[in-house]
Amino acid sequence: MSSKQTLTSRTRFSILILLILIVALGGLLRFYGLTWGDGLFFHPDENNMARAISQLNLNSGFHPDFFAYGQLPLYLVYFSYQLVHGLDLRLVPFKEAIYNLRFWSALFSTLTIPLVYLISRKLLSTSYSLLTAVLVAFMPGLIQAAHFGTTESLLTFFFMLIIYLTLHLGPGPKYRSILMGIVFGLAVGTKVSALYFIAPVIVASLYVARDWKRFIYFWLIFTVFAVLVALLASPYNLVDYESYLSSMRYESAVALGEVKVFYTRQFENSVPLVFQAIRVFPFAVGFITSIFGLFGLLLSLREYRKQFFVILIFSFLFIIAVNSLIFAKWTRFMTPAYPLFAVFTAYALYKLQNKLAVILVLLFTVAQGVLLFQIYTMPDTRIAASTWINENIPDGSYILSETANVVDIPVRNENELTVISFDFYHLDQEEELSDQLINHLEKADYIFVPSRRLFANLPQNAGNYPLLEKYYDALFSGRLGFELIHTQPPYFEPRRSDLLGSFEEIWAEETFTVFDHPTIRVYKKVDVLE
């Protein structure tokens, strides 16, 4: 064997070891802390999915009675649980369903790391492809999604796998189009909104099909397998079509803003793209990575003649456009696009060839990822706040709190506190609530503000909720007769005496904080309300 061949062999081995280490580190950041919440489950979506899983049984034909998501993730958890427990088709306990959902979420998120490395190898050198893998491993939004038992990690993996397959699609064997159809069907079986994953397939087919016959043949094979797999993965979308359609109509109406619900209030008066640029990408992708990613996207536009770049650019812009222009702009909607930020960031750094820029991007991305990860190594803020409440608030105290929390605080009411979960969301719409609020304020010894859901959304909706604005203004200024005596921020923030909260709490899209690390505030009555 020549020295050149030996060097190549050693280099490949070193690259493999580095990639394994990166994936292992990314896996640690995703799998560690999957039991966060101390047996309490604060994410409404994973609660809904776990509830559906816990009801699956043979007698009902494994009917999910739940259609907000596809059946694939539900069946994945159910049958993997049965496999571990002897295939006796027992009911899956709710808690086990939650933890199994999180396991699969973490696994698919971890598998996304080497997949993005392989994608970037079509565009970049080995070292910059490894850099891409590091950025994906430490990306805050991906680490967070991995700790939620929801569909985002699965969808992100399927989207990256579709892109990978399109980058390797050629006029050769038809198995590639079959495989692509299968993956697309699995994505749609996970969540029907994955239909927009068709974007890279469309672009790739235009490059590969050199005549109409090949074009039609490709799409025929792809469509047949995509439809078959989607129906097998989520059969009750067809079997119980009326229930599925009813659910989709409601979910679509909420997403489009046709039905107003309390948890979409933050999107009122929001500007597409601007909202994501300010309140989603800096926190989920990373401040530096989001900037360099957009810069890399602009640089890549010069490569419009190259098939691989066209597929990536079109896929990225399509998913951003689709999810920016709808009313509901939740962080999770953009999750499948996050790895592409890493690819474009690495491309920008590759073109710049500036070591300082590489170090800067790495430091900021790793720091943001580690900070978010440590949320799952510490007691949940609601549990920590509940401990403080049980130790410091007298027995029998009268508490005014806010409604619409998955779990109210204190999570364990050891002091027999009277906790009123008041409906502040409709204070300006229902007149009787004003009188009820005054009555509760007269009785209240303490006020709990369990998250930023209500008060942080008022500035962009100034004038729309005058009574709610007056209430929080009076509370925060002290005119209501209450003073702030305790805050329970995430561990990585100092205990703050100011009322405005942290930059992340105020500016990040609310679901980025309220599910797993909300800041809790406790106010004590010090004066009689006039």
Automatic annotation (TrEMBL):
One of its GO terms (molecular function) is pentosyltransferase activity. GO terms for biological process: lipopolysaccharide biosynthetic process. It is found in: Cell membrane. The keyword Transmembrane helix applies. Its main location: membrane. It is a multi-pass membrane protein. The chain crosses the membrane at residues 12-32, 66-87, 99-120, 126-146, 153-170, 182-209, 216-238, 280-301, 308-327, 333-350, 357-376. Residues 98-230 form the Glycosyltransferase RgtA/B/C/D-like domain. The keyword Membrane applies. Keywords: Cell membrane, Glycosyltransferase, Membrane, Transferase, Transmembrane, Transmembrane helix. GO terms for cellular component: plasma membrane. This is Glycosyltransferase RgtA/B/C/D-like domain-containing protein. It comes from Candidatus Roizmanbacteria bacterium CG22_combo_CG10-13_8_21_14_all_38_20.
